[in-house]
Amino acid sequence: MALFCNFSIFPKPFVPSCSSQKTQFSNQNTKQDSIFRIKGPAALSGHITISGSKNSSLALLAATLCCSGSSLLHNVPNISDIQAMASILSFLGAKVESFDGKMMVNSDGVDKVEVDSEEMKKIRGGFFVIGPLLARFGEVVVALPGGCDIGKRPVDLHLRGLRALGSVVELRQVQDGKVWAHAANGKGLVGGRFRLDYPSVGATATLMMAASMADGITVLSNVAKVMIGGIPTDEPEVVDIAHFLNHSGALIEGAGTGTLVIWGKSQLYGSECVIRPDRIEVGTFMIAAAITRSCISMSPAIPSSVSCLIDKLSEAGCKISQLDQHTLRVSAVPAYVGDDLRGFGIKTSPFPGFPTDLQPQIMALLTTCTGSSLVEESVFDNRMTHARELQKLGARIQVSKSSAIVFGKDEGSSLCGSPVIARDLRGGASLILAGLAAKGTTEIHKIEHIERGYEKIDTKLQILGADIERSTPLPVLV
Ligand code: UD1
């Protein structure tokens, strides 16, 4: 962990000495209509570098709103969700600079409590700003968040938790159902007790940030965590937030245990941290090796954050080795592991269960394994739309509500290139993986969904030997 979260405190405004080119963020919209064209089947080999975690970065960018002075985040991925979050912070009045994979945020100039709705609707993580703004200014107005369309994604736990910290929360239906929250005492939040009905990652993040600046002590229970065999296991993104806030002057105890005790502070100070590697990107490339029956290595990776996937791929027959502390190698080369990978079942659940964000990619893999496999989605209630697109590529999949039976290559699945549509971020990634395994050309449309969460995925796959290109259709003149 120390390697990836190397925190230090900057009590005074931090001024980077780096002379590299900086990007100043503003809330401008960009429109993309490129497609990915993949010629398969691909044989991959070599090594790729994993980018920083999207979800940790989003939460930590919001957490910088709690801090006076500058915060410096290292290893922030250059993806559109992060750009959208940077735009939200800029809109509020924060100064956001990006250079060499780092982001520096100074929120001293924040002077708005109402977030731009258009930016807010682009990403789920934008909603994280509700906690810091409410705690700092005693009032906030935010639109309900966007993000992937993967089912009902209520924010009731965020709002009920904020009420437990002394705020009044109203849903304004005037325009698009905005949330208006203000401190009941007219000043700021006060410590309280709140038990989450479900260990929501997002609600845990919101309430940690809010409680860090509340007056008094807050106890949050059933937060995103899990015990394995009696040993507390950290929900990675939640622990990152706790570390960042603590290094910024907050006092949070119990990260990883299911109960957080937070002593609120009136002032937090900007600090510096290194974002951990994205475990979902690690998992996606591990599955890329498996689906193409190839051997690739990747770093930096934290093996314990993908232990569930390691178990499942090993069960299928892949050979997974840890080359050093932060390098994983996955081999599914037939000469070493045999001609076939065996199908296996998965059921998604909160960390350290099987990650819902890897369910679509696993579904693509299972179409190339032997036998039939059961995929159960228990976190989100409508996260199966990629099955329809995989079917266009020749997959045989039967979906029933939140479960799917995936028939393997000996039971009717046979992947063959075709035009398909990325309907959400991880579903789009599953189409790339299927396209790599399919015979012929796969064209993936709406790749802006994929680029929300994967940094240069086409370039990384090209480095590994894939025939994938981005192409932008010429504009039609009317
Ligand atoms: C985060 C991640 C997302 C990941 C998910 C689960 C970000 C930006 N996104 O999403 O990539 O797939 O964790 O690991 O970090 N729920 C409620 N009420 C609430 C909040 C959540 O009922 O107030 C429910 C949701 O509908 C869902 C479940 O809790 O069924 C899990 O959601 P949650 O852990 O909050 O996921 P997100 O934070 O939205």
Automatic annotation (TrEMBL):
- PANTHER family registered for this protein in UniProt: UDP-N-ACETYLGLUCOSAMINE 1-CARBOXYVINYLTRANSFERASE
Cellular component terms (Gene Ontology): cytoplasm
GO BP annotations of the record are:
cell division; cell wall organization; regulation of cell shape; UDP-N-acetylgalactosamine biosynthetic process
The record's GO molecular-function terms, alphabetically, read: UDP-N-acetylglucosamine 1-carboxyvinyltransferase activity
Where is it mainly found? cytoplasm
Instruction: Report the sequence similarity comment from the record.
Output: Belongs to the EPSP synthase family. MurA subfamily.
Record-annotated Enolpyruvate transferase domain positions: 39-461
Name of protein: UDP-N-acetylglucosamine 1-carboxyvinyltransferase
The EC number(s) attached to this protein equal 2.5.1.7
* CDD domains xref list: UdpNAET
Q: Mind telling me which InterPro entries this protein's record contains?
A: Enolpyruvate_Tfrase_dom (IPR001986), Enolpyruvate_Tfrase_sf (IPR036968), MurA_subfamily (IPR050068), RNA3'P_cycl/enolpyr_Trfase_a/b (IPR013792), UDP_GlcNAc_COvinyl_MurA (IPR005750)
> What NCBIfam families does this protein's entry cite?
murA (TIGR01072), PRK09369.1 (NF006873)
Instruction: Name the Pfam families for this protein.
Output: EPSP_synthase
- Tell me the enzyme class: transferase
Report the pathway entry: Cell wall biogenesis; peptidoglycan biosynthesis
Identify the keywords attached in UniProt to this record, alphabetized: Cell cycle, Cell division, Cell shape, Cell wall biogenesis/degradation, Cytoplasm, Peptidoglycan synthesis, Transferase
Q: Which reaction does it catalyse?
A: phosphoenolpyruvate + UDP-N-acetyl-alpha-D-glucosamine = UDP-N-acetyl-3-O-(1-carboxyvinyl)-alpha-D-glucosamine + phosphate
UniProt KW Cell division keyword: yes
- Report the locations given in the UniProt record: Cytoplasm
